[in-house]
């Protein structure tokens, strides 16, 4: 499990994928999200600008990312 600490109220889903190293560029993250390959708290999320807050869990490609 990857833990990402943020100092703001939220982080956008596409930015989180990049920060966690699961996407190399924003365009790549956008495609993963739009193709339904990303789950937020167990549910498929296709909204790339979705606000991810501490306590949320994002799953992609067998990896889980938690936001602290």
Features:
68 residues, alpha+beta, Structural Genomics Hypothetical 15.5 Kd Protein In mrcA-pckA Intergenic Region, Chain A, two-stranded antiparallel sheet
**Strand tally, please?**
7
CATH superfamily grouping? RNA-binding S4 domain
Shape: globular
Average pLDDT confidence is 95
Q: Gist?
A:
The protein has helices at 13-19, 26-34; strands at 2-4, 11-12, 38-40, 43-44, 51-52, 57-60, 63-67. It is an alpha+beta fold and 68 residues long.
Structural write-up:
This protein has helices spanning 13-19, 26-34; strands at 2-4, 11-12, 38-40, 43-44, 51-52, 57-60, 63-67. The chain has a single domain (1-67), classed as Roll (Structural Genomics Hypothetical 15.5 Kd Protein In mrcA-pckA Intergenic Region, Chain A). The chain is globular. It is α+β, with helices and mostly antiparallel strands and 68 residues long. The strands form 2 sheets. Strands 1-7-6-3-4 form a 5-stranded mixed sheet, covered by helices on one side. A two-stranded antiparallel sheet has the order 2-5. The model has no long low-confidence stretch (mean pLDDT 95). The protein contains 2 helices and 7 strands; from the N terminus they run ββααβββββ. 24% of the residues lie in helices and 31% in strands.
Topology:
Elements: E1 2-4, E2 11-12, H1 13-19, H2 26-34, E3 38-40, E4 43-44, E5 51-52, E6 57-60, E7 63-67
Parallel strand pairs: 1-7
Antiparallel strand pairs: 2-5, 3-4, 3-6, 6-7
